[in-house]
Prior knowledge:
Elements: H1 12-18, H2 27-34, E1 43-46, H3 53-66, E2 71-76, H4 79-93, E3 99-102, E4 118-122, H5 123-131, E5 140-145, H6 157-170, E6 175-180, H7 186-193, E7 196-199, E8 210-213, E9 216-219
Parallel strand pairs: 1-6, 1-7, 2-4, 2-5, 3-4, 5-6
Antiparallel strand pairs: 8-9
Amino acid sequence: xxxxxxxxxxxxxxxxxxxxxxxxxxxxxxxxxxxxxxxxxxxxxxxxxxxxxxxxxxxxxxxxxxxxxxxxxxxxxxxxxxxxxxxxxxxxxxxxxxxxxxxxxxxxxxxxxxxxxxxxxxxxxxxxxxxxxxxxxxxxxxxxxxxxxxxxxxxxxxxxxxxxxxxxxxxxxxxxxxxxxxxxxxxxxxxxxxxxxxxxxxxxxxxxxxxxxxxxxxxx
Length: 220
C-alpha cells in the first residue's frame, strides 16, 4: 500500500512529514490502516522488531493531536527508552506538536504537562500522575503502550495492568495502541483491551535459525 493512498485520511501536516521519508507502508502498517487505525480503533500490534510498529503509534497520536481531539501519551517501560523516543519524536514532529518527557519525580502532579500535546513517560510515572489527580489526564485521546508483553513481568506487570484498567475507566473514548514484538496470548489480550489484533511476521532482514556445534552452524 502506497502512503499516498491514505493521504485523505491524514491531516496535511502529518502527511507532509511522512512523505519525505516513506513511499509505501509496511505490511503491519497496511493491516493497521485496514483495521481502523485512522478511525480511532483500538489496536494490539504484534509484529517483529523493526517491522514498523512505532509508525503505527505515531500516526494515531499525531492525527488525534492535529485534529484537536486531545493529547497523546506514549508509555514505555524504561527511562532510557523514554528519552530515546522523546528525542526521535521531537526531531520528526517538533514543528507540529509540543512534546514532553516526564520520567522524573514520582511525587509530583507535573501540572506543566497541560501545555504539551504528546507526553512520553513510564508506566510508574503515569500511575503517579493519575494518583496526584493531574487535571490534564482527562484530555488524553490516544494512549500508546510500548512493550505491552511486560504485563507478564513480575516487577512492572501489576503496575501496568492497573494503569491500563484505570485509564480505560477514566477515558471512555480513548484510542489504545498496544505494541509488542512477542506475546503468547495475543487474542486474549486483544479482547481485554477491546482492540483489533494486528499480527504479521514480516521483518526487514530475514531471520535464519540454526544450531551451533563444534564450530559449525546447521540452519533449519
